[in-house]
């Protein structure tokens, strides 16, 4: 079995994902937010491409919560933005969330050709990869990236994922690009916060007064949520069920 990496969603070829497990990574902030929402009891998350898609869903079911960002800022008329800290149990427990973000939700939608699509973040790294390991398929770490290019924080997270797989699972070989991410992470692991603060996405969030979101998203292995995208929705896998 092999571990590979796609640096940003502009490079996804859904044919290449057939027969594989895709792990989508957009740690600042879409996938961290989805994992936090499910951890806090959201029923499920519907990733959508455009704000209009989300509004149409809410039109048919008024109880759906609209959430998401454009250029980092909450979309006008939506109840929640894209800060994981907003998705508290009081706001999301048992709720369905329609989620629209600049890169993250688009990346998830583009991965639908994979056999399995898991939502990855540092928050649920070990839970996500332990599940991926049990699926016994090639794993593709799919980074969302930004502005149609790679995003440093996603590459670092992919490297942390490669590290976990190397340490805990025998039997995977690693593509060169996934090993590049692994070394990038190893070199920066001690100064991860500083490196991410200085990245373009980090600077953007800091500029909006959201450094707290970065600190939240850089916590590793704190949630046991395994989140699977299937039939258009992202649900928490209960009791490690296999699908
Ligand atoms: C994205 O999908 O591009 C991000 O999650 C952006 C953000 O949260 O600001």
UniProtKB/TrEMBL annotation:
This is Probable 2-phosphosulfolactate phosphatase. InterPro entries: ComB-like (IPR005238), ComB-like_sf (IPR036702). Belongs to the ComB family. SUPFAM superfamilies: ComB-like. It comes from Thermincola potens (strain JR). GO terms for molecular function: 2-phosphosulfolactate phosphatase activity; magnesium ion binding; sulfopyruvate decarboxylase activity. HAMAP family: ComB. Its cofactor is Mg(2+). It catalyses: (2R)-O-phospho-3-sulfolactate + H2O = (2R)-3-sulfolactate + phosphate. Gene3D superfamilies: ComB-like. The keyword Magnesium applies. Keywords: Hydrolase, Magnesium. Pfam families: 2-ph_phosp. The lineage of its organism: Bacteria, Bacillati, Bacillota, Clostridia, Eubacteriales. It comes from the Bacteria.
């Amino acid at each position: 079995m092999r571990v590979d990496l796609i640096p940003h969603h502009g490079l996804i070829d859904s044919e290449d994902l057939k027969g594989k497990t895709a792990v989508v990574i957009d740690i600042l902030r879409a996938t961290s937010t989805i994992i936090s929402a499910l951890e806090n009891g959201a029923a499920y998350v519907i990733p959508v491409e455009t704000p209009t898609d989300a509004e149409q869903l809410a039109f048919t079911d008024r109880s759906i919560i609209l959430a998401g960002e454009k250029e980092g800022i909450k979309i006008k008329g939506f109840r929640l933005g894209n800060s994981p800290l907003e998705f508290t149990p009081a706001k999301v427990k048992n709720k369905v969330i329609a989620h629209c973000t600049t890169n993250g939700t688009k990346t998830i939608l583009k991965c639908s050709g994979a056999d399995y699509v898991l939502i990855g973040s540092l928050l649920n790294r070990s839970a996500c990869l332990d599940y991926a390991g049990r699926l016994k398929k090639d794993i593709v770490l799919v980074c969302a990236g930004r502005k149609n290019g790679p995003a440093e924080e996603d590459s670092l997270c992919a490297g942390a994922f490669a590290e976990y797989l190397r340490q805990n699972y025998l039997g995977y070989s690693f593509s060169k690009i996934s090993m590049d991410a692994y070394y990038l992470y190893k070199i920066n692991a001690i100064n991860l916060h500083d490196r991410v603060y200085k990245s373009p996405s980090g600077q953007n969030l800091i500029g909006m007064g959201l450094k707290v979101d970065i600190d939240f998203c850089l916590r590793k292995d704190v949630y046991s949520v395994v989140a699977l995208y299937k039939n258009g929705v992202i649900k928490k896998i209960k009791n490690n069920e296999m699908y």
